[in-house]
Amino acid sequence: MDIRIFKNEAEIGKAAGQLFCDAVKENPSCVLGLATGATPVPTYNYITKAYADGKVSFKNVSTFNLDEYCDLPKTHKNSYYTFMHEQLFNSLDIKEENVHFLDGNAEDTEEECARYDAEINNAGGIDVQLLGIGNNAHIGFNEPADEFTVGSFKVKLTDSTINANKIYFDEGAMPHYALTMGIEQIMRAKKIVLIATGEKKAEAIKNMVEGEVTPQVPASILQNHKDVVIFLDEAAASLLNK
Ligand code: PGA
């Protein structure tokens, strides 16, 4: 694991944002796996500024988002579809048809997950996958479990995840289910970039980096990936053995 520690989240945004811009400049039709949550916002801000400054174009880039809530209208203010358009896509020249999401409102979720997995394969797989990490070490919405998951699936969110994300919703409105890419699928990305900031993530990061590889710590599987870069601020790195 290539672990890089920064002073604050703005510095991470610059470094991670530049990594994504470089990937797009090197391969203008690359396939990106993208994440939601508070963590990637500085990275997305850097990317939209680089685009506005004429430094990079996304016109041939394709994206696949990691996950989406179930039973939330696609254009709801808290859907990940809305989040990604507001934080990133609306400010880039990316084509809407190249932007991919799991449909959390699909009637047949198994069929929807199979469709998504096939689309990722048809696109040639993910070149660079961005990840955050949950306080419980989830990646995507792969919660601690008895086995590592494979392809996309419908997941019941844990109390830890509901407590962390319900602040964004009106009281009682946070969905308890989501569709998410599976762990094996995330691991097939050619390169993985994980970002974690703040003290709340320190234990998950320690377990991910220094603990055993176990589905009870979903992110620990990244120890087995050949090309993973971890961007941490000092607080998220604070429990690591130096
Ligand atoms: P956060 O979420 O960026 O809002 O902390 C990360 C995650 O749950 O993966």
Characterization of this structure:
By secondary structure, the chain is of the alpha/beta class. Helices cover 30% and strands 17% of the residues. It is built from 7 helices and 10 strands. The protein has helices spanning 9-26, 41-52, 80-87, 109-122, 159-165, 183-187, 202-210; strands at residues 2-6, 31-34, 62-65, 67-69, 99-100, 128-131, 153-156, 177-180, 191-196, 228-233. Strands 1-10-9-6-2-3-5 form a 7-stranded parallel β-sheet, covered by helices on one side. Strands 4-8-7 form a 3-stranded antiparallel β-sheet, with helices on one face. Helix 7 links the parallel strand 9 (191-196) and strand 10. Helix 1 (9-26) crosses helix 2. The longest helix is centred in the N-terminal third of the chain and has 18 residues, at 9-26. It is globular, with a radius of gyration of 17 Å. It starts with a strand and ends in a 9-residue tail after the last strand. The mean pLDDT is 97.
